[in-house]
Amino acid sequence: MIAPLVVRPATRPDVPRLAASLAAAYPDYRWTSWAFPEDGRAQRLHRWAEVCAGLAGVDAGTTWVTDDCAAVAAWTAPGAPAPAADLQAVLDRDLPKAFGSRHRVVLATEQLAATGRPAAPHWWLDAVGTRPAARHAGRGAAVLQPVLDRCDADGVPAALNAYTSNVVRWFERLGFAVTNAARSAVDHELPVWTLVREPQPREA
Q1: What gap in Å lies between CA 100 and CA 27, rounded to an integer?
Q2: Which of 26, 123, 194, 204 is the most exposed place for a label (fewest CB within 10 A)?
């Protein structure tokens, strides 16, 4: 008998494993080669995952994992408070190091893509990924589901940026729709789609 898939909020002890899972999931993603300098890219990617999806999401209670941490979804909640001072210091110190010479372009592109985000409060997907060996078993959709269910219950949209047409199609199957299409700021090298999922009516 196949054991049921368990999805739960991530905790601090999960951070090393979930960061490793995201780092393993992202090397072949077009955004990765665009956002991180080639020098030390694997280490830069791992530190980004550790800080953003790991420490920030875990402390906020908005990162979900499968029980084995093979799949991860990290969100920012609507109206989320600013990170604690010690975490903000880590973000301010480590993210510019992780992105290196690409930091300015990454930030400018995030601001450009923000035009497609809902004006109303919404959940924002910072990262989602599944280890390659664990793909095609529904884990990616499963770790997204707790927030999508909450969005439906609260009547709140969910939104994200995607950087390949394959990813866009995958999210469209989950009920998201493209609200903005652009290219990265400054260099115009990377396509950027913003997708939004409006809350779904709950069945009686």
Answers
A1: 17
A2: 204
Q: Residue 28's pLDDT is what?
A: 82
Residue 107 sits at φ, ψ, to 5 deg, of -65, -45
Two tokens at 188?
A: 């115009």
Beta strand 63-66 pairing with 177-183: unpaired
Alpha-carbon distances of 104 from 95, 97, 138, 157, rounded to whole Å: 11, 11, 35, 28
129, 71 contact by CB (below 8 A): yes
Helix 103-113 crosses helix 85-99 at what angle (to 10 degrees)?
110
Q: Which two tokens stand for residue 47?
A: 């530190």
- Both tokens of 22, joined, read 């995201």
Q: Give the type of residue at 14.
A: D
With a cut of 90, say whether residue 68 has pLDDT above it. yes
Structural domains of the chain, ranges and CATH numbers in brackets: 7-197 (3.40.630.30)
Residues 6+ apart with CB under 8 A from 9: 61, 63, 64, 65
CA separation for the pair 156, 158 (Å, rounded)? 7
- CA dist., res. 89 & res. 118, Å (int): 29
Alpha-carbon gap, residue 55 to 75, rounded angstroms: 12
